[in-house]
Amino acid sequence: MISSLSCALILKSVSSRSFIFLLFFIAKVKGWKQCEGGGVCPDFATCCPSARPGVSSCISMRYNKDPDDAKGECCDETIGCPYGFSCSVRLDENPEVHLQSDWKVHGSGLDSSKATQHRQSYCKIDQENPPTELFHDQPGYKMCQIPNPSMTTKLRRFPIIPEVSQGKEGTDEQQRRRPLPAHPLAYYSSHGDLFECDDDTKNSKDETSSSSLSSSNNKTQIRKALVMIHGSLRNADDYLCVAHSLIPQAERGSVLIVAPLFLAPSDLKQKGKHHQHHHQFQNQTQFLYWQNHEKQPKYPISHSWRYGADALNAPVSSYEALDRLVEHLVSFRAPGTDTNRCFPNLRQVTIVGHSAGGQLVHRWALLSNALRIPWTINENMDIRAVVANPRSYCYLNKKRMMMTMDGDKTAAQWKVPTASQIQKCPDYNQWTWGLESGGALDKVVPYKVRRLKEIMSAEELAHRYASRKVLYLTGEYDDIEQDDVCGDRDFQGMNRHERALYYVASLNAYFGTATTSNSTTILGASSSNNTTDNSILLRHELHTIPKTPHDHILMFQSAAGRRAIIEPIK
Description:
Blueprint: E1 10-14, E2 17-21, E3 27-28, E4 32-34, E5 40-42, E6 46-48, E7 57-59, E8 73-74, E9 79-81, E10 85-90, H1 112-117, E11 120-125, E12 141-142, E13 144-145, H2 149-152, E14 154-160, H3 172-176, E15 183-189, H4 210-216, E16 224-229, H5 236-245, E17 255-261, H6 318-331, E18 348-354, H7 356-367, E19 382-388, E20 400-406, E21 409-415, H8 419-424, H9 446-454, H10 458-467, E22 469-475, H11 486-492, H12 496-511, E23 516-517, E24 540-545, H13 552-557, H14 559-565
């Protein structure tokens, strides 16, 4: 395990007033583990040998219900299977669309002669000890590697000046050097400190060697940035590693990966099965952290960061933190110039979230009013949001895809629920499921209240959302029934896959358009159902990932996932 902290906050008294100066130091957390063969992997991942000396390949942990000692199986130097599966090869007339369809078996104990006939690898489910809630074989994971652990595995600090305390004046450079109020968001980065530009590296106190900096910290080479938002496990280390697996080796110098970490109170203590962060901080307030599973009347829904609540230790919304982070990437200016000081050649920023992270990305893309994020079509910058397998969505009006009987068949119809249905769930159209005011969460999500006050109408908000590039990814096998709150279950669908189809159908019905999709089950796209101007361009896409469960690795590594996250959109 990596040590706890590299330095602490410094208190300084000036003219009888105490200020906390936020030094942009680097905290090393226990979110990574050392592999026996060299290199590091995310906590709870399985270490596998690789062809690169001192670097291990990593099989991500798939699910939080796996046993404590769960281990994956290393198939070869690049492919692995998660816990509950074994490496296998089959002859297949219909190869999967995943990247792993041409795996060559090396030293796995499998019959490699069969693999050469039609090389399609897959992970065979253990019928005697199947993983929780999975019933199908699946493609293998393309294992990830951490090429520069001394830089990548350090937990860094991104200072956030709350909206309620900052004015319009002041450059980014001035703001980041101010004393309180500034509150740091925890994050990992593939290219070191986001505030260390190339002309700053000579003054860096990073422990990385100068040769490593020149090859891995040269931000002028960066053309794409991936902002990876973790799910409810808050396993930002794993999301960063999986993002590495999406990038060809030759392009790694030009792709920046940033993995924010929305900490919870339990992460600041040494308890909990998957609370891998437990930093043992000397000062628990130094990083922003949010309510999570702790039961409080103020927070009726867990994982408060996913719906934009303020942190527990500062008036900073998780959405505001993401605003500032993305703004920094696209517009961090040298004082008095129009040049992006750190990332002058950046042309694409993709914000990606899965599950609870998908909820955050979806609702943030809907509400964000950060003026310096160029959402509109721009030849110099491509901003996109990738929303994968969220549990729920925020609808744009009171209508839902309600199930109705048509003879002996059940069909979904786009309509306002009946009075009796609403009576059972009166907050179905309040935040986080809708935009109506007055919900219990308005008190803990002032960001949402402020954004709606800035917009003239809900229709204007909807039209702005339609103009933003949003790609929805849904797993075909993410079909486990979700017995959750009524706003999800009774008004959005019985499982995550169904909810994705219904939500995109609602967009098609609202705008009278047909959303780009590879799915054959888009409902309610008839123009006869439109409620607004048909000329509205809906820049959204839906992609169903075949034979894929609730698994961020398979979702991201699928062909459609890679296109959404990495490749230019034509």
